[in-house]
Amino acid sequence: MPNKLKEAWKAGKAVINGWLAIPSAFSAEMYAQAGWDSVTVDMQHGVQDYLSCVACFQGMQRVPGLVPMVRVPWNEPGIIGKVLDAGAYGVICPMVNTAAEARALVQYCKYPPQGTRSNGPIRAALYGEATSYQATANDEVLVIPMIETQQALDNLEAILDVPGIDAIYVGPSDLGLSLGLAPKLDREEPEVLRIYERLLKETGKRGIAAGLHNGTAAYAHRMIKMGFKLVTIANDVGLMVNAARAAVREARGG
């Protein structure tokens, strides 16, 4: 299927991304119906493994046009190939700090001749039936390195110049740690906001989307107005717990 995030970005629109830490097809099925443009299974810090990722993708299929993505644990060809074979239409990869690491990520995500991905899209190509998936996958799969360290900032332009990069994704907590700040989302430090402005400027020059992980919907909306084209709001765990706490407080009259 055409990747609707790519279509939105070409039209200059921002997209809102959900984030799944809970390893449950039922939870994913319910969560996916909230109106997200895409939903990402978090295999790095979520309680997800490969089988739960597949189950979450199956749950998401109830929503036509929803783009399934994965944050992989690391920049490693085995797991990247498997999540793509499972049906991921975007790979968010943590800790990409150099142009060489960005080139490796692109290689792992794409079939030859653009890359080195092995053929075997067991689920992505309709459970092994002959389809046109291999002919279109290189164009439709999103390659998204995370920019979350000082080293990545030092190498930013070289990373962004790697052919095949569709977007970047900022991890504010790790970025803060790398800068000697406390790990948190929804940052207000002037030096961090200046970094965001730089990222938006450099990605904008190259027609690359910039993404950001956010703690609240209000901050995500503000970042869309700032220029980010992919915003995530917390994760399923955070939204559930916050809603539960608010319900308990209201019931107690607090």
UniProtKB/TrEMBL annotation:
Signal sequence region: none
Keywords for this protein: Lyase, Metal-binding
Claim: Lyase is one of the keywords in the record: yes
Keyword Ligase: no
Residue ranges of domain HpcH/HpaI aldolase/citrate lyase in the record: 19-243
Pfam families: HpcH_HpaI
Superkingdom classification of source: Bacteria
InterPro entries named in the record: Aldolase/citrate-lyase_domain, HpcH-HpaI_aldolase, Pyrv/PenolPyrv_kinase-like_dom, Pyrv_kinase-like_dom_sf
Family according to the record: Belongs to the HpcH/HpaI aldolase family.
Protein name: 2,4-dihydroxyhept-2-ene-1,7-dioic acid aldolase
Organism for this UniProt entry: Caldovatus aquaticus
